Amino acid sequence: MLLVHGWPENWYAWRMVMPALARDFTVVAVDQRGIGLTDKPKGGYDSATLANDLVALMDALGYQRFAVVGHDTGYIIGYALAADHPDRVDRLAVAEIPGPPDVASAPPLFVPEPVNNRLWHIPFNRVNHELTEQLVRGREEIFYGYEFAIQGGEPLPDQVLRYYFDLYSDPEVLRGSFGLYRAWDATLAQNEQRKSRPLPMPVLGIGGEKNWGDLPGQAMMPLADNVQTVVIPGAGHWLAEQAPEELLAALTTFLAPYRAGQAGG
Fold first, then answer.
1. Can you tell me the distance from the alpha carbon of 52 to that of 258, in angstroms, rounded to the nearest whole number?
2. Average pLDDT, stretch 60-68?
3. What is the pTM of this model?
């Protein structure tokens, strides 16, 4: 099982669900390109390249087929991985954004304040010429603290927030973490092509009641042949940290046929 974190986090976001998942699966929790302990090249942050990174990782680890769970930007990467390499992904669970980036369904510039507050960082993070880094550097607690607070649900513990603030205070991580957003145009074009190839594997869309609700699943309906939706009561955006038991229950049910198939093989 491959776990793909979101922004602004790293593999640590999965720490509360990994032990339980590891009872039934080999769990691989990655740091995305540009974040944490991975390499931080100047380019290669479009979704196809990020997906290829993960396929190469699973090749190196010796796993031909696997399940993928992606949260936030991990939703974008997980969808790309499943669309570009459908022979490798047995099941796909995606969580807590209202769908992969798509020109036709993109929110307009002027949206209601609650939506703007949750999405404003996307155009901000896309700005090039290091302006975003200059504005955020030294103000990580303000910038990321707002992001963690505005996305709904119970606040994360102070020590967890401090971990992420410290992680993203590294100038190279700060730059690398904006790479996916700065490659947005390339990912939009890739997703336009992917729409013509519906995903053949089962897909689960997971949302927090206090944030995106059933939209993660609804967005996948036109993009896959078999889509299920789960909304976790009381949770906001940070599902694996705010509602780990409920997330595990949803994943356990969804992955049961995959687990049975693995055992039978």
1. 23
2. 97
3. 0.96
